[in-house]
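Q: Here's a chain of 301 amino acids. Please give me its 3D structure as tokens.
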Amino acid sequence: MTIAVQPDGVAVASIKPAGGEGGKPFVRFAHFLPGQPDAAALEKAGREGHANAFRCATLLGGGEYQLISVEAPNVPKEEMRTAIRWRLKDILDFPVDQATVDVLEIPLDAAAQGRAQQSVFAIAARNSVIQPRQKLFLDAKVDLRVIDIPEMAQRNISAMLEPEGRGVAMLSFGADGGLLTVSYRGELYLSRRFDVTLEQLLESDYDRKHAAFDRITLELQRSLDHFERQFSFISISRLVLAPSPVSGLDEYLSSNLYMPVETLDLASLLDITGVPALEDKAMQQRFFLPLGAALRTGEAP
């Protein structure tokens, strides 16, 4: 179960894994509680979603952490986090001893093993962000097991769309901007943040809306060109836009990019029959990342 703290309330979602070949993960619960996302709201959300029966996760917002690609230090795996913390001391804009740090490997092409430099994603968040979030769940009497990031939630959904031997680019938008990821063989290879919010894309003024479309197109072209140079062994099959009530973006990008563009309907991946409200695109947008985080399996990132 994911209990996501959003600017205007709390979104709660839980998923039952797919049973049998060809089955879809079943959305057990998806409910939004509007208002101040405080301990009382979280306690109510946990109670309504029967959080005590699940392994609970929450998501950080786009501005609450940094995800940085760095060269992997040549140390044993068990020492990687300590070594990365040392490397981050000259990169972060705050003291590293005030940071919570985790590491996510970026797998190399099998043919390049031993020749190419291994990179990793370093994820760093201020303790002043992590500790209040932990206290919020403690006060709400919800056993928080995982603090996740949007990239991994988006990766979980993107991985379900990958054709055999090819990668998928995915682009989502929310209150804190756009997020582009590329997944390949179920792994995260790219993360880019775009300074364009969902609100800007829902702008009624034609010129302002299409100026935002132009910015997105330029950022995508730059990011994907850079990605192809860096990871030449990965062929991206298509760009998938996360569900949203935005109209016209998929057609605009299709006419300006060299790859197919499509908009995801969560019903194509998940069994949403238990939550008919998820047929609405605005609801799919709100629950896109919480449901992606709820697809997380095991203890690993």
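Q: Can you summarize the key feature?
A: The chain has a mean pLDDT of 93.
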